[in-house]
Write a structure and sequence with these properties.
The chain is α+β, with helices and mostly antiparallel strands and 182 residues long. It contains 4 helices and 11 strands; from the N terminus they run E-H-E-E-E-H-E-E-E-H-H-E-E-E-E. A hairpin with a 2-residue loop joins strand 9 and strand 10. The relative contact order is 0.28.
Amino acid sequence: MLLPKKAFLTKGVGVHTEKLSSFEVALRDASIAQYNLVRVSSIYPPHCQMIPKSSGQKHMSPGQIVHVVMSESSTNEPNRLIAASVGVARPKDPNHYGYLSEHHSYGETAKKANDYAEDLAAEMLATILGAKRFDLDKSWNEKREEWKIMSDIVKTQSITQSAQGDKSGKWTTVVAACVFIM
């Protein structure tokens, strides 16, 4: 059974005359280009510990197959604002799984894309926890920086990379990812 025990968040931006190369540069900036990335769907495993990227990379080797939930966005329009975000929602009970969301957008600030990704992950988790109605404004505790969904406390976080399209029309790519470590 492949069940990740640890995870970390990372982001990057790349600019190049070729779209694929700009994606590669963004992966390098995120420090994940040296791995064979396999995209997976949006479940955050039970008992999976979120750790800093620097700690996570110590458990990995170049060429390794690595599972990721990743968002990306690219443009070759000069000055066009792009963003890629991954949101994470984890219940307080470590026995229950959580959710990840991928959000990529045009014309949104990093803050707006970041908030949206977190809200989306929390909403997806709320539905699996059995919330019939989920009100983002009523469920969020600003002071404690946590969600309360029914009787469950939910912690959220997110990572966003935004950029403006290269002024000369080169491809600009942004990536955000949650990287799983087995």
